[in-house]
Structure formats: structure tokens, C-alpha cells
Amino acid sequence: MAITDSEPLQIGQQGRQLHVDTLESTPWQPDGLLPGNAYRELAVGAATSGKVGLRHLLSTAPFEKETGWHWHDMDVHAVFVIRGHITFRFQGAPGEQVVRAGECITQPAGVPHNVIDRSSDLELLELTLPQRFSTSEPAGQDGR
Questions:
Q1: Is position 116 within any domain?
Q2: Within a domain: residue 103?
Q3: pLDDT tens-digit readout, 9-54
Q4: Could you tell me if residue 11 is inside a domain?
């Protein structure tokens, strides 16, 4: 809900809360969406009642194989690389998309893609709308 009054809100008003995600309060979860990666689900999801998700991902093992073609049921999917690199292929887009440290890719949400490579030191932030989403594989196609 947008603020329409000219008066500022106080912490606690209209559900406004202050939260700092620390490594102690939000520890790494070893089993995440992709094997070989640890995740931290940051408090953005709780602060937005699930409208927005923000995850911190860190590679924990060498990249062994592509994810395979898949897509996510979401409205927005952005990835900001902090360290290392990650390489995608997208259905309908020529070539590979390599995203390096300091770069951000706003993926076309709902479009099949395949993670084909990542560095062993990959660290990134993933922003999604909504926080929770489903992942599906295209039926009977290789995604190209």
C-alpha cells in the first residue's frame, strides 16, 4: 500500500518493521534450489508479505552439470552477481548470456532457460516477484 499522507510513518505502523539480516540471524541453508549452492532467504519476503523474494546464493561445490531447461512461474526474476560468473541460455535468444561480478540480468520471467555454467566462487543475489514460485520443465522440447 502506498503512503498517501504527508506524515511519515513510525516503526510498527501499518506493519512497518526494521530487520537486519546477519549471518547469525539468517544462516546459510546447504540444500537450496540448485545442488552445489547454499542459500540465505533474506527478510524482504517477510517484510513484503511474500510479494518480493531476495535470496543470497553462494556456490559450495564445483559446477557439475547444466540445470536443464526450465521456467519459473513469476513476474520478475533478476540476478545480481557479486563474485564470479554465471552463464545462461534462454529460449528464443541467440547464444549464451554470461553475467559477471558487478552485473545484473533481469531474466524474462516465465521463459525457459538453462544454467549451463558457473564459477566455483559464484556469489549472487536473486530477486523474485513473488517470493515463492514454482519451477517447471517445458514438455517435450529441449527449450531451444
A1: yes
A2: yes
A3: 777 776 667 888 998 989 999 876 777 899 999 999 988 889 999 9
A4: no
Distance of alpha carbon 71 from alpha carbon 66, whole angstroms = 14
Tell me the Ramachandran region of residue 84: left when phi exceeds 0, alpha when psi lies from -120 to 50, beta otherwise. Answer: left
pTM listed for this prediction:
0.84
CATH of the domain at 108: 2.60.120.10
Give the count of domains, the chain: 1
Q: What is the C-alpha separation between 101 and 103, in angstroms, rounded?
A: 6
130 cis-preceded (ω within 30 degrees of 0):
yes
Residue 112 has a CB neighbour count (10 Å cut-off) of 21
Residue 20 lies inside a defined structural domain of this protein: no
DSSP three-state, residue 44: helix
* C-alpha cell at position 103: 552485473
